[in-house]
Amino acid sequence: QHRQEQDLVVLSGVQRQGALDARETKAIGQIESTLGVKFKVRPRLELRSRDSVRAYLLRQFDKEKTREQFAGEEAAYKAFGLIPDTMNLRALYLNVLEEQVAGYYDPETKALYVVQGLPDELVGATIPHELVHALQDQYANLDSLLKSLPTTDDDRAAAIQAVVEGQANYVFLLINAGGAENFATRLPGGWDQLREATRQSISSYPRLAAAPMAIQEELLFPYLSGAEFPRNFSQ
Length: 235
Known about the structure:
This protein is mainly alpha-helical. It is 71% helix and 6% strand. The chain has eleven helices and three strands. A hairpin with a 4-residue loop joins strand 2 and strand 3. The protein is globular and about 50 Å long.
């Protein structure tokens, strides 16, 4: 009986990986068709636990900003009355991002990771977005690009993040619309309505919805305002 249960667990894992691989194959075709750019190699795709994602975020936090930098930002936000005096900014970011992250592409390992146990719809949205990052990395080397930034140049870092995340978000939207030629007809109300719908969707994420407005806008900026650049560039 125990051996049968082990076999079922292994089989279930194989079936899940098979479904992920099929989604990746489909998304790769859609991305290549949308952008007119081919993947040089197929990225590896793996499942990761929530704890593993949190550990990854902690490592990224430590790479991108020191605790002293977070303390400085926190002091500035509090001086302008944008966050409560008792709030720990670094802890807030980590708490909110842990809720938001469904997967990520790691330029160091050249692999795409998806969080275990996600709803099917969220998996379908995560894989194309992160695959765009993999494609960006194959042509622009994201790891070198990000490491070349001075740790004190927040404006340049924000601009690069907006381009990277904005393109991934825009390509995903184009795929959902069935291509650029259908974008306007599939989105009643156009781009402005899409932005508003994204803001309204915040209510689905309790931690993000509870965050101060300044933090919400900062986290949305790369995905919404960042998507304006490839959108305007392609028109």
